[in-house]
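To illustrate the input format used throughout this study, we show a single complete record. The first block contains the structure-token representation of the backbone; no residue identities are included at this stage. The design step must infer an amino acid for every position from geometry alone.
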């Protein structure tokens, strides 16, 4: 959240959080609270606890402002930010629908700082907020006019093609760019990146509401010039308002000066401060990816180019969290199957926990840093055997703040 912004200006997620206790009545034999006064009292008590958590969150001090990093390249609103480090260059591309700050959330949870400390020159591709020329771009435009030039700029800085990581929505976008030009990156990691959208929770609901959602996207584009981040946040929060209620209730019981409380606030500020989507990107992601499932069916096109993952014959790591309900392993594994030299890493984490969770350093950061620093096999065209690394156990799914 930008310094000085009042958290009370974000009414939508808060209102949705209050829906949770009352939606809990659904499916009960006596759903009418007037016919179940004891249940009504319990729900009102729950709502009061949620309100206490929301108020505690709103009153919590703003996190310290993160250090502004120098931009080595820019185009439109996109900038390539330098996090320092010595060694081969790594370019990290975040989702288009959230701010890049989740990758540098706080001192104790900075993925970018972790990469810079691990023997890599870490560069973050911050897409920025779409305005001006960005508003005309679709997925092809972001691949050709933003991602590809950023990677070429990184190659000029490092003297060779950089390693590349795509997180969440940027994963498929990176695959599209590498299909256009496989020489853009010497190796690639897709982290929590869906490819087979049939396995993403809530898809059937999106299909049923497709006409209304499409109309809403068009209306938003006409009024605001882009799909507002608040509208996108509402769609995600509506999937499970009860979980949103519980997280605020639990926050009220935390010591406000504890690390857990500070982490909650930093994540909640990030999740509620979403980035608008360029209208064409919103339409294409919703229709071509979510509804039609074009990537895994081999039908996705960037302009006249048919995206073919098999064209990228360099080392790839596809990483996912077994508790991820935004991009579960069933949605990410097909990408590994479509790439000729991909390995799979599955960790006991959720969508956001992969990047900032308590065990993220051991589960993801270190394996990724070792993968990006590895020079073996980069000149070979022979596919390597796929290897799956997964922690034992069957933990309960995690519902993240937002993808």
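Output of the design step:
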């Amino acid at each position: 959240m930008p310094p000085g912004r009042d958290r009370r200006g974000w009414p939508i997620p808060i209102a949705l959080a209050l829906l949770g206790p009352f939606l809990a009545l659904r499916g009960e034999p006596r759903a009418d609270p007037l016919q179940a006064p004891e249940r009504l009292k319990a729900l009102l008590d729950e709502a009061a606890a949620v309100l206490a958590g929301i108020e505690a969150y709103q009153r919590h001090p703003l996190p310290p402002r993160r250090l502004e990093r120098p931009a080595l390249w820019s185009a439109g609103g996109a900038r390539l930010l330098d996090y320092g480090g010595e060694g081969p260059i790594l370019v990290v591309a975040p989702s288009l629908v959230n701010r890049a700050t989740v990758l540098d959330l706080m001192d104790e949870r900075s993925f970018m700082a972790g990469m810079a400390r691990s023997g890599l020159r870490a560069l973050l591709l911050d897409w920025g907020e779409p305005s001006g020329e960005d508003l005309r771009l679709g997925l092809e435009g972001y691949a050709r006019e933003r991602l590809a030039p950023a990677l070429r700029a990184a190659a000029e800085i490092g003297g060779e093609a950089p390693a590349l990581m795509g997180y969440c929505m940027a994963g498929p976008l990176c695959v599209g760019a590498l299909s256009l030009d496989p020489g853009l990156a010497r190796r690639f990691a897709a982290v929590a990146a869906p490819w087979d959208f049939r396995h993403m929770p809530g898809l059937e609901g999106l299909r049923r509401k497709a006409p209304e959602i499409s109309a809403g996207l068009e209306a938003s584009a006409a009024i605001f010039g882009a799909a507002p981040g608040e509208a996108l946040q509402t769609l995600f929060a509506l999937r499970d308002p009860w979980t949103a209620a519980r997280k605020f209730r639990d926050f009220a019981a935390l010591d406000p000066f504890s690390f857990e409380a500070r982490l909650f606030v930093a994540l909640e500020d990030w999740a509620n401060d979403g980035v608008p989507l360029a209208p064409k990107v919103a339409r294409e992601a919703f229709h071509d990816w979510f509804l039609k499932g074009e990537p895994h069916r081999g039908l996705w096109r960037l302009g006249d180019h048919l995206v073919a993952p098999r064209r990228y014959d360099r080392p790839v790591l596809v990483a996912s969290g077994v508790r991820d309900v935004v991009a579960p392993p069933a949605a990410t594994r097909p990408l590994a199957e479509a790439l000729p030299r991909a390995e799979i890493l599955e960790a006991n984490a959720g969508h956001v926990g992969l990047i900032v969770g308590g065990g993220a350093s051991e589960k993801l950061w270190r394996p990724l840093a070792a993968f990006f620093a590895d020079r073996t096999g980069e000149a070979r065209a022979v596919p390597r055997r796929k290897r799956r690394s997964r922690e034992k156990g069957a933990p309960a799914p995690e519902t993240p703040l937002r993808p």
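Structural context for interpreting the output: Residues 71-200+278-378 form a domain with the Rossmann fold fold (CATH 3.40.50.1820). Residues 117 and 307 are 35 Å apart (CA to CA).
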